[in-house]
Amino acid sequence: MRWPGAAGSRDAWVGWAVALAWATVVFNVAEGLLSLGFGAADGSIALLGFGADSFIEVGSALLVLWRLRDSTGDRPGDDLRRERLATRGIGLLLALLGLATAVGAALQVVARRHPDTARPALLISLVSLLLMFALWRAKLRVARALDSMALASDAACSLACMKLSCVVLAGSLIFVLLPAFWWADAAAASVLAGLIGLEGWGMVRASRKPGFAGGCGCAE
């Protein structure tokens, strides 16, 4: 499946958006189940939180699929309504992701919990980082081509998950090299949680404005 050219049809770009959304669903369901399984077995609060975050990403992708259902561009009023609702829903999911990340970080510090081994977290976060980077770049390209704020918001959700992968990966490496700094990833996750939550709330506020036009403002 090749990228549409500069003058590619809307249907071709919509096809890419749908394919990327389904790829996100499949990958994140697998990632979420693995993270929850290893997290429960190993007592890793970071992996449990990471697994929960994966399903928030699934929710964002499903909203994109709903937004693009029967999307032909021939009914601008209906398309704009869906664009507004999808953007708002993804923004709320991002805000929820920020809250869940903050709660997970707090629980890790309060319980002073660290896993017996960092190998599962290292492997899962590294694979996630590589794949989410590819998905984020592709989603952003499609969002620009379709000038869709909902798709740009979904790309932002993928970027947030990629950042969380970086935090889990860095935290796991720190734990392996310097076990006394087991709390480092929780500290970094707390800061990241605030930024993710603010970005999500910004999307919700933008979708509620009377002048919302649905454009992503990210055209090249």
Could you walk me through the main structural features you see in this protein, from its secondary elements to its overall organization?
There is one protein chain. The protein is mainly alpha-helical and 220 residues long. It has one domain (10-207): Alpha-lytic protease prodomain-like (Up-down Bundle), CATH 1.20.1510. 79% of the residues lie in helices and 0% in strands. It is built from six helices and no strands. It has helices at 10-42, 45-68, 76-111, 119-146, 149-177, 184-207. Helix 4 runs antiparallel to helix 5 (149-177). The longest helix has 36 residues, at 76-111. The two termini are 22 Å apart. The model has no long low-confidence stretch (mean pLDDT 83).
Secondary-structure topology with pairs:
Elements: H1 10-42, H2 45-68, H3 76-111, H4 119-146, H5 149-177, H6 184-207
Helix pairs in contact: 1-2, 1-4, 2-3, 2-5, 3-5, 3-6, 4-5, 5-6
CATH topology grouping: Alpha-lytic protease prodomain-like
Helix content: over 70%
Residue fraction in strands: under 5%
Number of domains: 1
Level-1 CATH class name: Mainly Alpha
Quaternary organisation? single chain
Mean pLDDT: 83
Distance between the termini: 22 Å
Question: Order of helices and strands, N to C?
Answer: HHHHHH
Number of helices: 6
How would a crystallographer describe the biggest sheet? none
Q: What low-confidence regions span 5 or more consecutive residues with pLDDT below 50?
A: none
Principal-axis shape = elongated
Broad structural category: mainly alpha
Q: How many distinct beta strands?
A: 0
> What is the radius of gyration?
18 Å
